[in-house]
Design a protein that fits this description.
globular; mainly beta; five-stranded antiparallel β-sheet; Neuraminidase; four-stranded antiparallel β-sheet
Length: 301
């Protein structure tokens, strides 16, 4: 499916970057009614395989899908696609984030592309190859407090049993294209289970062959985002139908499970400037969906 360039498209990223200079004063903490989204939209067929989101304006987000080299601009008030801007050929595009006046796209094989808007299309200015052991990268985000791009692999690392249990998020400096030492988020399945129990969070379970009950989560990142005021990491795991929330020390603070029938494959999320959270699900036997959760003030942590 080809995408035709559109005339008279405004400079979307310049407007977004200007908005960054006038930040909305958010409550230090906020919460979301995940059981009752404020708005739900069915996305058009061209976004059935939607794979990522990033913020643009107060009421717009940019998205990609995992086949076409096209940036889709979506209105979060209506769910409609307002612009389509091509940037390249077909490919397995899984991640998208905005850094100032640039967009960064992540291909599943670890290739990053820095994009700049050129009228009715985007132009690839730079390509960065991630030299990491992972071969299936899906999550891409931006940390506004550190200025780092976040890369969240879906597949497990190689190595020992302990190594394979780890769940990490890499940090990349957009100025140099270099990965930073250490990890932005560094946890493990065992740690998540342990911290969930301490918080009284019920995780799904299954019966083993010996009829014992075992926690049944896989924790394979499909999207990563950072809350604009608290700095907490929000990470989606599509295979678990779950959103995991961590503090700056990689400590689990919250887990939310989505209804698989309504959001069957959680693929992307982003925060708007006012703290509202936007989440998209790929379509599975039906249309893809977008849900908007309005930030509500929390009385206390």
């Amino acid at each position: 499916m080809a995408c035709q360039s559109e005339p008279d498209i405004p400079d979307l990223l310049a407007e977004s970057a200007q908005g960054d200079k006038n930040p909305v004063h958010l409550k230090e903490s906020s919460q979301y009614e995940f059981s009752s989204p404020d708005r739900t939209f069915l996305l058009p067929a061209e976004l059935t395989e939607v794979s990522a989101l990033t913020d643009l304006g107060d009421n717009t987000v940019a998205s990609v899908q995992d086949e076409l080299g096209v940036i889709f601009v979506i209105d979060t008030q209506t769910g409609g696609v307002v612009h389509r801007l091509p940037f390249g050929g077909n490919g397995d595009y899984e991640g998208l984030t905005r850094v100032g006046e640039k967009l960064w796209v992540l291909r599943s094989d670890g290739m990053l592309m820095e994009l700049t808007q050129d009228g009715s299309q985007f132009r690839v200015e730079r390509e960065v190859v991630l030299h990491i052991e992972h071969v299936d990268c899906e999550g891409l985000g931006y940390h506004p407090k550190t200025g780092m791009i976040l890369v969240a692999p879906k597949d497990r690392p190689n190595g020992s049993k302990e190594d394979k249990d780890r769940r990490r998020v890499f940090a990349l400096d957009p100025a140099t294209g270099q990965l930073q030492a250490g990890f932005a988020l560094d946890t493990s399945k065992k740690r998540i289970v342990r911290e969930a129990r301490a918080l009284g969070i019920d995780l799904p379970t299954r019966k083993t062959k010996k009829d014992k009950e075992k926690v049944d989560i896989k924790v394979q990142w499909s999207s990563i985002a950072v809350h604009p005021s608290t700095g907490r990491f929000y990470a989606l795991s599509a295979v678990d139908d779950a959103l995991y929330v961590f503090d700056k020390n990689s400590r689990l603070v919250q887990v939310e499970f989505f209804a698989g029938t309504e959001m069957p494959q959680l693929e992307g999320m982003t925060f708007l400037r006012n703290g509202d959270l936007v989440v998209v699900s790929e379509g599975r036997g039906g249309p893809s969906r977008m849900q908007v959760f309005v930030a509500q003030p929390r009385d206390s942590e």
